[in-house]
Design brief:
Helix content: 25-40%
Number of domains: 2
CATH architecture of the largest domain: 3-Layer(aba) Sandwich
Radius of gyration: 23 Å
Shape: globular
CATH topology of the largest domain: D-Maltodextrin-Binding Protein, domain 2
CATH class of the largest domain: Alpha Beta
Structural class: alpha+beta
Number of strands: 24
Largest sheet: 7 strands, mixed
CATH superfamily of the largest domain: Periplasmic binding protein-like II
Distance between the termini: 51 Å
Length: about 550
């Protein structure tokens, strides 16, 4: 439901959730698979990092609009040009990242958990010289959500509404302090705000909402230089970055959705970093001296069933599908060890994960028994919509073809309906499964707490599977009010147990986010996160 927001006597009205899904990871000098060696020196330029993305186009450049290419857009564009009030600690790869200060130094709730005071970081400037202060913070929040404000931007509201869901009011206390009040306790507000990026009010006023994306200005570690749509985005290091200047001089992003083309670009030196190298090519890349790095992170690769319609409205059918798939074979023969099996909804790199909640195994006989009990002794036909590439989606076509074969063995005949990634995101934000399919495959993350309710709350527009369980909803209400992270983790574990038993999703794998780097890229840390910190690495 929309939330109402009051500031300086004005009332805002928050639109429904619009966050996007996807995930992946980062790596080099940290746990997980790691090799050292050669590789061509991409572009031949010291200090230049050139990344081959899985995205089909350059993400939009306006603060929260970077999500239009999934969270890969946030990872490589949003978090490089901009900062939020908070961020994740990405400087280590052994623990699940905690939320740490960014443009806010601290955030303190009152006794009810419904009023939060944010102390802002002093002596920070946008790259155009505009000072960061409470006025800049309120200007940006108005732009996201205040429909009565002259700078309100509907597209931004639709794309990034998830992280602002629950906000009731925001006000300036003094030049370096703001207060945010929520519609009841919102214990995880700091986590949700990690992706609410702040742009320069001066630049936004000068260019207007429609023009700012062509000349973006933030406080982030990199500064926009140039863009060729569909081809590349060039950013240069912000030498005055408050968090310390990046070691590289230039960051170049190139959208290369085709996996073979990404590998070729790496091998020929056109790029020196690629996302998601094809698993079959990893051994050869390592032999050729490229670094291949992985790490566990907060990611699950599922199918979401439309549980409001037959046959997926029967829990026995959903459980049968989960028993019918051979996750270990998929990982060994298709993914070449670049993922972990998912036997429950909570990813292994999420604080909600408990090994005792692992439920499913490869048991075709049990799957057939459940199908017969549900009235489908001969199985049934169904359709699946899936993206052909894109943020966190791994190698979706061969993966879905393998699952299609497993399910056919128990009588579930699946028709695969591929769709381009950006088109799928558009449908998801609109609350629809593309092509009227009965299930959808798209990678998901729970790194921001709000995604739990986004995926499984009956009031969420992106809960396209229409899942609704009163016990789960009651736990979500408790979680919102629980300020103790350890107790909140235990409540999420209870949620995971219930959802795993209900099986509204096909729980397939947890990605280990493989990426390949040239030998001359050093100092990169791959955290247990979808996001990455590019300020510490070097290119020789």
């Amino acid at each position: 439901m929309p939330a109402r927001v009051t500031r300086h006597g004005k009332t805002w009205k928050l639109a429904a959730i619009g966050g996007v899904f996807a995930l992946t990871l980062t790596a080099a000098c940290s746990p997980g698979k790691k090799t050292t060696g050669g590789g061509s020196s991409s572009s031949g330029q010291a200090g230049t990092l050139v990344i081959g993305m899985t995205a089909s186009d350059i993400p939009l450049l306006d603060t929260g609009l970077t999500q239009n290419q999934g969270y890969e857009g946030v990872r490589f564009v949003g978090n490089q040009l901009y900062d939020g009030l908070t961020r994740f600690d990405l400087n280590q790869g052994t623990e699940i990242p905690k939320v740490v200060p960014s443009l806010a130094l601290s955030w303190t709730p009152d006794a009810t958990g419904s009023n939060w005071t944010f102390k802002l970081r002093p002596n920070v400037k946008f790259s155009d010289g505009t000072p960061w202060n409470a006025d800049a913070a309120i200007f940006n929040l108005d732009r996201y959500v205040d429909k009565s404000s002259p700078q309100f931007y509907p597209a931004l509201n639709a794309q990034a509404g998830l992280a602002l869901s629950g906000i009731k009011s925001a006000s300036k206390v003094d030049d370096m302090t703001i207060k945010i009040s929520t519609d009841g306790p919102l214990s995880y507000i700091a986590t949700n705000l990690t992706t609410i990026s702040m742009g320069s009010p001066t630049a936004i006023k000068a260019e207007g909402n429609e023009g700012f994306g062509a000349k973006p200005v933030g406080t982030g570690p990199f500064i926009f230089e140039s863009e060729t749509r569909g081809q590349q985005l060039v950013m240069t290091a912000n030498k005055n970055y408050w968090g310390g200047a990046p070691k590289i001089n230039k960051l170049i992003l190139r959208p290369i959705p085709d996996t073979t083309a990404r590998v070729a670009a790496l091998q020929t030196g056109q790029v020196n970093w690629i996302e998601v190298p094809p698993p079959d090519d990893i051994a050869n890349l390592e032999k050729s001296g490229f670094q291949v790095v992985t790490n566990s992170y907060d990611h699950i690769w599922p199918w979401a069933f439309n549980v409001s319609q037959k046959p997926w409205n029967d829990v026995r059918v959903r459980q049968a599908a989960n028993y019918a798939i051979d996750r270990e074979s998929l990982i060994k023969n298709v993914l070449q060890g670049t993922a972990d099996p998912a036997y429950q909804v909570a990813p292994k790199a999420n604080s909600a994960y408990r090994a005792s909640n692992d439920l499913y195994s490869y048991d075709p006989a049990k799957a057939k028994q459940l199908l017969a009990a549900a009235g489908y002794p001969n199985g049934f036909t169904t359709t699946l919509s899936y993206p052909t590439s894109g943020s966190g989606n791994m190698i979706p076509t061969p993966m879905n073809e393998a699952l299609q074969q497993d399910l056919a063995k128990v009588g579930i005949k699946v028709t695969l309906q591929p769709i381009e990634w950006a088109s799928m995101i558009t449908s998801l934000i609109a609350g629809k499964i593309p092509g009227n399919a009965q299930a959808i495959n798209v990678s998901e993350t729970f790194q921001q707490d709000g995604f739990w309710t986004a995926f499984f709350s009956p009031t969420s527009s992106i809960n396209v599977g229409k899942y609704n369980d009163p016990k789960v909803n009651a736990l979500f209400a408790q979680i919102r009010a629980e300020l103790d992270p350890a107790k909140r983790s235990d409540l999420y574990a209870q949620v995971s147990k219930l959802i795993t038993e209900d099986a509204p999703w096909l729980f397939v794998v947890n990605d280990r986010d493989p990426r390949a780097l040239a030998k001359n890229v050093t100092g990169f840390i791959q955290p247990k996160s979808w996001f990455v910190d590019l300020t510490h690495l070097s290119v020789s």
